[in-house]
Amino acid sequence: MKTIIETHRLQLREMNVDDAPFLFELNNDSDVLKYTGDVPFVNEEEARNFLVNYDQYKKYNRGRWAVIIKNTNDFAGWCGLKYRSEDYETDLGFRFMKKYWNQGFASEAALASINYGFSILQLNRIIGRAMIENKASIRVLEKVGMKFDKPITLSNQKAALFTISNK
C-alpha cells in the first residue's frame, strides 16, 4: 500500500480492495452521508467494485486517500484531492467514521492534503465544497485556510465553494 502523506498522528495512503469493508461501513452511516448527496453502497461487493474502478491515482496522481490512525492502525475515513475533469479543478474532500469526529483528524488530514497539493503536485488552486448546513465541514475548510468564494448548489441543496491558492 502506497503511503502518500504522514502527519504526527495519521498516515494517508492509497485505498485498495482490502478497504472495502471499511468503505462500506463508512458509507452506510446516515449521519456520515447526511450532507454528501451520496447514496450508501448496497453491499461490500459494491464498495469493492468502486475501489477496483477508482482511477484517480493512475490518471491524475491524486485521489481520496485512506486515513489511518498511526498508533492503532485503524481506518478512520478518507481525505484527499480529487481531480474534477468537468471543471478542471482539484477538490479537497474528507469523510470520517463518526467515532473519529471532533478529534481534529479531518483538519490534520485536510491541511496535509493541501500542503501536498501545493508542494508535490504544484497546484495553483484547490477548491472545497460543502453544503451550507454542514457547519463541521465548513469549519474544517476555514481552519485549513480556505476562503469562501461563492454560493453553489450541490445535490439540489444550497452549498458553498471555498478556495485556497498557492502563494
Please explain how this structure is put together.
The protein is an alpha+beta fold and 167 residues long. Helices cover 29% and strands 35% of the residues. The chain has an 8-stranded mixed sheet with strand order 1-2-3-4-5-6-8-7, sandwiched between helices.
Briefly characterize the structure.
By secondary structure, the protein is of the alpha+beta class.
Relevant terms:
167 residues; alpha+beta; 8-stranded mixed β-sheet; 6 helices; 8 strands; globular
Global morphology: globular
Number of strands: 8
Give start-end ranges of low-pLDDT stretches.
Answer: none
Major β-sheet, in short? 8 strands, mixed
Give the H and E element order.
EEHHHHEEEHEHEE
Q: Which class of secondary structure composition applies to the elements? A: alpha+beta
User: Approximately how much helix is present in the residues?
Assistant: 25-40%
Q: What's the tally of helices? A: 6
Give average pLDDT, whole number. 96
| Rg (CA only) | 15 Å
